[in-house]
Write a structure and sequence with these properties.
Number of helices: 16
Shape: elongated
Distance between the termini: 53 Å
CATH topology of the largest domain: TIM Barrel
Helix content: 25-40%
Amino acid sequence: MERSREPIYLLRMGRVHYRLAHRLMETLVDARRKDEIGDALLLVEHPPVITLGRGGGMEDVRLSRESLARLGIEVIETERGGRATYHGPGQLVAYPIMKLLDADLHGYLWRLEEVVLRLLAEWGIHGQRDKAHPGVWVGRRKIAAVGIAVSHGVASHGVAINVDPDLSAFGMIVPCGLPDRGVTSMSSLLGRAVALGDVEQGFVAHFSQLFGRTVEPRREPGGWLTAPAPNGRCQPVLDTVERMGLHTVCQEASCPNLGDCWARGTATFMILGDRCTRHCRFCNVAAGAPLPPDPDEPNRLAEAAGILGLRHVVVTSVARDDLPDGGAGHFAATVRAIRRRLPGANVELLIPDFAGSMAALETVAAAGPDILSHNLETVERLSSSVRSKADYRRSLAVLAWARQRGLATKSGLMLGLGETCGEVLQTLQDLRRAGCDLLTLGQYLQPSGRQLPVVDYLPPSIFHWYREMALSMGFRWVAASPLVRSSYRAEEVWAACRL
């Protein structure tokens, strides 16, 4: 098989339902076929599911679909080879998405099996091939299943290794359609628990060696992160902001979309000064001791919005933990000033959590913003290391309270900080349970060397998949692409809110 020198893109998905992971695989196969991405390797763990390959159907499944459904187990037909396969917790599933440049499918399958054989040998397990039956065996018991599909020269599906699954679950099927054979796992052979993460590392190392290429998350930005540079069309916004003595998050946070938004005559205003009382590790806004609030700022902001002819005014702020109300009264005054100057405009507020103060939230809500936005920023596991003084559950409570108050609610996440796909999907479910209807997903970009480094630059196709997943969960409006930010083209949200 002809080899490329380009790194293979590694995506650790975490635990994701088979049907959703299969949809991502389809999306990436299409992108690979069009050369929008290079080769990729997806590593995932599935909740319990039975999949049927082209070689076998329900005759290999010992329980009816109805009985399986009562157990919460779905049966899914696939386009891969092989027969019935069980996937479940404790099983490492690897889906390489590879363009077979020389159509050597036999060599490709041999390498996949060899990756597993070398991995097992590293753990002191002697695996073998069986010429009559694909996969990897230990004696007459299968330890790893292999099933491949090829479409337009791009291979997908892959390998499922039994690391530490519940082996009794395999009793629901006739594995490989061979009633006289059985299954085994690494943990049962070793007589001890085996961590899936440790096996992942070994799999990636051997995969890299056998395919002669680095396997890792994308460490450098792709061409999809190119944004328009500021030009002369931005001057009216800059002149207005400077003349009125205002701040914008576009400037203070070094937003990559400044050139695009300002050229269209829009900006996101930042009130309460340019010094934040928090030190979030993703943010470029300066931290330090802020000045007292400027009581005339709401009027100047409203005047600037009028000069720019804005129909949708977005206002955010630095965190002001030094103020008794966290700046809530200033937010409310800004809404009222905009209403006086632009009675037909929509007002969107992107607020901090006000340290969870219900009184502060009530002050803001009473001013009547059209959209109340509060960013969750990242998944729960990473939240404490990314967001200073913030709390994941408190942020969800802010959104849930606002929704119960009758406000349209919006939130945003940055991706590429080391989260798994499963964690992102769980976060989206948490947002939906909190009543959040509007969502933005964008690529985290390190503003300077002082902030957290980027762990992974996700290609646009993965953002497209996230958008599809979010819409299927019931979000009314979703913007998802590498350059999306929480207030990017925010005026488009209002149409979704009115549906």
